[in-house]
From TrEMBL:
Belongs to the short-chain dehydrogenases/reductases (SDR) family. It comes from the Bacteria. Keywords: Oxidoreductase. It comes from Mycolicibacterium austroafricanum (Mycobacterium austroafricanum). InterPro entries: NAD(P)-bd_dom_sf (IPR036291), Sc_DH/Rdtase_CS (IPR020904), SDR_fam (IPR002347). Pfam families: adh_short (PF00106). This is SDR family NAD(P)-dependent oxidoreductase.
Length: 269
C-alpha cells in the first residue's frame, strides 16, 4: 500500500506504540486521526505530527465504544478523506490472576471487542471499494502466553485469532491485515505493571523484561508501517519470538513444562 494521501485512524494514540505508529504513518504521507481516552495526550500527538509537517487531528475516544469509533471515522472523513487504514492499538493489561466477571468484561471490551466493533464499521465500506487495511496490535502474549494475567493472555490470543479470520475472509476483497506481536516495549503500560505492588503483575512484568530485549515504541512503529506497505500479516518486532512460537507448536507439553519452570524461577527472585 502506498501511504501518501491515505487516511488512518490510530486508537490509543496518546502515547506508547499508538503515538509512534501515528507519527510513522504521518512521516510516510498519511493523514492521521488520533483517538484516545487521554484527550490531552491525543491532541499532543496530533500537534507534534502537524509541527513536523504532517496532517493530523485528534479526538477523545473510547476504542471499545461504537459511538466513539463512529466519531473517529466521521472526523477522518470530514478533515481528510474516508478512512483507508484502521490501527486497533488501544489495549489494557487488566487485572492479575483470574479476575472477576466485571474484570473480564472490561478487558474483553478493550482488547478484543474494540477490534470487532471497528471492523464491523469499516470493512463493508472497504469491500465496496476494494481496498482497506486493518492493523491489530496484539502481543507476544497472543502467540505464547502472559504469566500472572489470564485476561491479558486470553484476549491477546483472541485478537490474533480475529486478525487471522479477517485476513482469510476479506483478503480476496482487497483488504489487508497485519497483526503486531511484540515482546517487551518501553511504554507507559509496561512501566505501570512493573511498578505495581501486586505479585502477579510483577511476575508478568519480569517475564516480559527477561524474555527478550525491551525495545522502543518507535522500533515497533517502523516494522508495523513497513508491514502495511508490503501487506505482511504477522509482524514480529522481536525476531526471536518466531523461534519461541515454533518451539511451542513443536512440543506443546514440553513448552508448558518449561513455562512452569520459568514461572517458578521468577517467583523465587
Amino acid at each position: 500500500m502506498e501511504l501518501a494521501r491515505k487516511t488512518a485512524i490510530v486508537t490509543g494514540g496518546a502515547s506508547g506504540i499508538g503515538a509512534a505508529i501515528a507519527t510513522e504513518l504521518a512521516s510516510h504521507g498519511a493523514s492521521v486521526v488520533v483517538g484516545d481516552l487521554d484527550e490531552a495526550g491525543a491532541h499532543t500527538t496530533a500537534a507534534a505530527i502537524r509541527d513536523s509537517g504532517g496532517a493530523a487531528a485528534a479526538l477523545r475516544a473510547d476504542a471499545s465504544d461504537v459511538v466513539d469509533i463512529e466519531g473517529l471515522i466521521t472526523l477522518a472523513a470530514r478533515e481528510f478523506a474516508p478512512v483507508d487504514i484502521y490501527v486497533a492499538n488501544a489495549g489494557i493489561t487488566g487485572k492479575p490472576g483470574l479476575g472477576t466477571e466485571s474484570d473480564w468484561d472490561v478487558i474483553l471490551d478493550v482488547n478484543l471487542r474494540a477490534h470487532i466493533r471497528a471492523a464491523r464499521l469499516v470493512v463493508p465500506h472497504w469491500q465496496s471499494r476494494g481496498s482497506g487495511y486493518f492493523v491489530s496490535v496484539a502481543s507476544a502474549a497472543g502467540l505464547l502466553t502472559q504469566l500472572g494475567a489470564a485476561g491479558y493472555a486470553v484476549t491477546k490470543h483472541a485478537a490474533v485469532g480475529f486478525a487471522e479470520w479477517l485476513a482469510i475472509t476479506y483478503g480476496d476483497d482487497g483488504i489487508g491485515v497485519s497483526c503486531v506481536c511484540p515482546l517487551g516495549v518501553d511504554t507507559p503500560l509496561l512501566q505501570a505493571i512493573h511498578s505495581t505492588d501486586d505479585p502477579d503483575s510483577r511476575l508478568g512484568a519480569s517475564s516480559i523484561e527477561q524474555s527478550g530485549s525491551v525495545i522502543s515504541a518507535a522500533d515497533v512503529a517502523t516494522v508495523t508501517v513497513e508491514a502495511i506497505r508490503t501487506d505482511r500479516f504477522l509482524v514480529l518486532p522481536h525476531p526471536e519470538l518466531l523461534e519461541m512460537y515454533r518451539n511451542k507448536g513443536g512440543d506443546y507439553d514440553r513448552w508448558i513444562s518449561g513455562m512452569r519452570r520459568y514461572q517458578r524461577t521468577l517467583r523465587a527472585l
